[in-house]
Design a protein that fits this description.
This protein is an alpha+beta fold. A five-stranded antiparallel beta sheet has the order 1-2-3-4-5, with helices on both faces. It has a five-stranded mixed beta sheet with strand order 14-13-15-16-17, sandwiched between helices. The longest helix has 29 residues.
């Protein structure tokens, strides 16, 4: 168990903007920061980070919380795992009791796979440096490619020994379970037929190593944990695949992973651009050359999930091609997908016989960066030029080319950008602009038939996922109760001052805290909040006030009751805020709620009381109707009705509400 003091140090130290900023590209908007939500697909930012409150909130999917909640949600960590992650990030020493064997066995499957992969990475790295075979084959290969020691260490490169079951033997001898060796893909299970000498055979276990005789490239997730491996064979064998990857597992999904993303994410945000290379060595060589905002698609064709992962950090992608025409042609469809996600795409074509790895090795860091920057070309125009070289003077082929280019332009969501490409391609293809527009409209109509039409207005709004609101809105006093607990959370410690001629419900003092005022006002009239979650939150305030416990908003944000902590995030997050220059632009002064706090608190209490009185009047009216049926004293009901009516009139005067007769 992690101690309470350690948990408090972690939650107090962890800055939400720092933690989220490692995974999401954030931009300043007023006092808050905004970005694309990492928890659901959206094109208009609805994800807000509030540094002052140290919380995040997505107004699209409803997710929110503090830094610990974010890591738990994003990395699928348990609460203790998220705390350990943040403790490591902020160099906080963890005080905890030693877990017993039962607690260790209860670690979930995902964590077991992470632990096994970490062991495998360390084993492969040790074999690269400390084993004769690893040094002579693996390390010499990396050195021949020009990789320096620090870059080998940074990317945790390794070597798997060539014997059939060297790693499996070592893992089993160190207590790792066969089940996870197979699930991770590090080991492959053989049936009992065939050659009994191939693999580890002990008590019915028969395993052999997937990556034997290969140099190893660990694949990391966004938080730097090893989720899988890539392996390259160094011997020439036509029957053996040059590269292999870990199979899909609970922690590794090829289509959602990018090689190098952990090492690149900060640089991608900084440079506002992501270089997309083809292979592991391209990424490593460019890092060594000082170009760190680069990733590779982990041995798969580019997928929508990988594009969206990049899109969380930047809207700009530059694809790095070697001079292989066949490879370029095969990847064009993937780039159309990038455009479809609303990202800007450029391409760089390296000279004949070169790729990013070989070019950076020959020409050095400065010249490599210069080449990339000087040879970046807009993708749509690059594709147009590339395909034009293939059609020559064949009119049928050229017609097909035009349709292909227009299809690419149709993928771009922004109509203004589409129109600009139509103009440029009209000139480049030597065809009338109107013809391209007609073809574009035809394609767009076909696309619209396949999907539910969305109006332009809808596109301007953040996507809202139905049902994200966890809190019941069915009670008649819901809005009034919500406003009461919202004011308590936001302003509980603020002091309200009263003059001699003002009524102060909490005694003779001329000043009182917002929390004490609201608690006393509601308790005095024996009002119980109807909404269960609001009532729980209010009762927590009552307890704190009655016991004179010091507290702030973090008490609720970090509350052990997930319902209360989620509700606190919901009520402390504001979806809208006025621009700082609102007054300068419009000469309109809108008072901040804090400026008119006493009035806001007083009116909130009276609105709740008014709603409760109206409900009591309604219930009493029903009793009056049925008095003759159940023998209720009619005169008592009438007397109660008069008293309630009088209270209603008094409250209405305070609130300046007209009463309908």
């Amino acid at each position: 168990m992690i101690s309470k003091d350690t948990i408090d140090r972690i939650t107090d130290t962890a800055r939400i903007e720092d933690v989220v900023g490692e995974f999401v590209s954030l931009k300043k908007r007023g006092v808050n920061l905004i970005g694309l939500c990492p928890f659901h697909n959206e094109k208009t930012p609805s994800f807000n980070v509030n540094p002052a409150r140290n919380i995040y909130k997505c107004f699209g999917c409803g997710k929110g919380g503090n830094a610990v909640n974010f890591i738990m949600e994003h990395e699928h960590y348990t609460y203790p795992e998220a705390l350990r992650y943040l403790a490591k990030k902020y160099d906080i020493e963890i005080e905890e009791s030693v877990p017993n064997p039962i607690e260790l066995e209860q670690k979930d499957e995902r964590e077991s796979l992470y632990i096994l992969n970490s062991f495998a990475q360390k084993t492969f790295s040790a074999q690269l440096h400390e084993n004769e075979e690893g040094r002579s084959i693996g390390l010499s290969y990396f050195k021949e490619r020009g990789f320096r020691d620090e870059i080998i260490e940074k990317f945790q490169l390794g070597y798997a020994l060539g014997s059939w079951s060297s790693f499996s033997d070592t893992a089993l001898e160190n207590g790792y379970q066969k089940e996870y060796l197979v699930k991770s893909g590090l080991s492959i299970e053989r049936d009992n037929s065939g050659d009994k000498n191939r693999g580890f055979v002990q008590k019915g276990i028969n395993l052999y190593d997937r990556f034997r005789g290969r140099v190893i490239f660990p694949i990391h997730n966004l938080s730097g944990r090893v989720i899988g491996f890539g392996g390259r064979v160094l011997k020439k064998d036509e029957k053996t695949a040059k590269y292999i990857n870990s199979p899909e597992s609970d922690i590794y999904h090829k289509s959602k992973s990018l090689y190098g993303i952990f090492f690149a994410r900060k640089s991608i945000i900084q440079k506002d651009n992501c270089y997309l290379a083809e292979g592991y060595t391209d990424v490593i060589s460019l890092h060594q050359a000082g170009i760190e905002n680069v990733v590779a698609s982990s041995g798969t064709s580019l997928t929508q999930d990988q594009i969206r992962l990049i899109g969380r950090f930047t809207k700009n992608i530059t694809v790095l091609y070697d001079s292989d025409a066949a490879g370029i042609g095969a990847s064009l469809r993937g780039i159309d997908m990038i455009l479809e996600e609303g990202l800007n795409v450029k391409v760089v074509l390296f000279p004949e016989g070169e790729d990013p790895d070989s070019y950076s090795a020959k020409h050095g860091p400065a010249q490599t960066l210069d080449y990339i920057q000087e040879n970046s070309r807009d993708f749509v125009l690059f594709k147009t030029g590339l395909l034009l070289t293939q059609v020559q003077n064949d009119p049928v082929k050229k017609a097909g080319l035009i349709r292909d280019i227009v299809e690419t332009i149709s993928k771009i969501p922004d109509p203004i950008i589409r129109s600009q490409y139509v103009k440029q391609c009209s000139y480049k293809l030597d065809i009338q602009e109107q013809i391209l527009i007609a073809e574009l409209n035809k394609i767009k109509r076909q696309q619209q038939k396949k999907i539910i039409p969305v109006s332009d207005e809808d596109e301007l709004l953040p996507e809202v996922i139905p049902g994200h609101n966890q809190f019941d809105t069915s009670t008649s006093t819901y809005e009034q109760e919500r406003n009461i607990v919202r004011l308590l959370l936001n302003f509980h410690g603020h002091i309200l001052s009263f003059s001699d001629d003002e009524e102060n419900p909490v005694g003779e003092d001329h000043s009182v805290s917002v929390a004490k005022y609201i608690v006393q006002e509601i308790a005095e009239d024996h009002i119980e909040l109807e909404n269960e979650n609001f009532r729980m939150l209010f009762q927590e305030f009552v307890k704190l006030e009655n016991e004179s416990i010091q507290y702030d908003a973090n008490y609720f944000l970090n509350h052990s009751d997930k319902v209360l902590s989620s509700l606190a995030v919901e009520l402390l997050s504001s979806k809208y805020s006025l621009s700082n220059n609102w007054h300068d632009m419009h000469q309109i002064y809108v008072p901040d709620e804090e400026v008119i706090l006493k009035e806001a608190v007083s009116r909130a209490v009276y609105h709740l009381k008014n709603k409760r009185v109206l409900k009591m009047l309604e219930e009493n009216q029903e009793k009056i109707k049925n008095a003759h049926l159940d023998g209720t004293d009619f005169s008592e009901l009438l007397e109660l009705h008069k008293r309630l009516d009088k209270i209603k009139v008094e409250i209405s005067k305070v609130l300046n509400i007209d009463i309908l007769k």
